[in-house]
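not sure who needs this but someone in the group chat was asking about Metallophosphoesterase from Bosea minatitlanensis so here u go. i didnt clean anything up, its just raw.
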Amino acid sequence: MSKIWFTADTHFMHANVIKYCKRPFASADDMDAHMIEAWNAVVGKNDLVFHLGDFAISRDPRTVRRIFSQLNGSKHLTPGNHDAAATLALPWAKTDQIQFKTVDGLQIVMSHYAMRVWPGQHYGAIQLYGHSHGNLAATRNSIDVGVDCWGFAPVSIEDIRLRLAEAAEPAIEEPRGGLTVR
């Protein structure tokens, strides 16, 4: 039986992301090799992977395709701000700015960017995003699935649920007694 995985912000071939995000790699080649191995260690050939943007930094179609072809699974892209034509031209199963999926009865809204509100939020839908490289705290219904947060590999819905359960809800104060004008 196939599984479903989520990831974002791989930034394949992006040497500067190592410095910007303090990734533990000596070079982009080392980082790419590690992430390909980590991806394929968890994702099976028939699994589904939702990549929430910033797949690769290279604009060379052959190089981007070479990495893409080494990764297991049927891949769906929610484009990010660094996804150039070479990435968008890959044979993704689906490419949309926002994607919706139900997994094990859980409604999921996916975007490269974190949202404050999303469809179904008040009915239990969660939001998965990337872009922030672990710099935005999770809430009980919204979490970063980028590789910087998950050991440089795609993450399962089971692991997402565990981390969401541990997340603190942001403090929101309800107004009391209407508007006070001074």
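also The chain has one domain: 4-166. if thats useful
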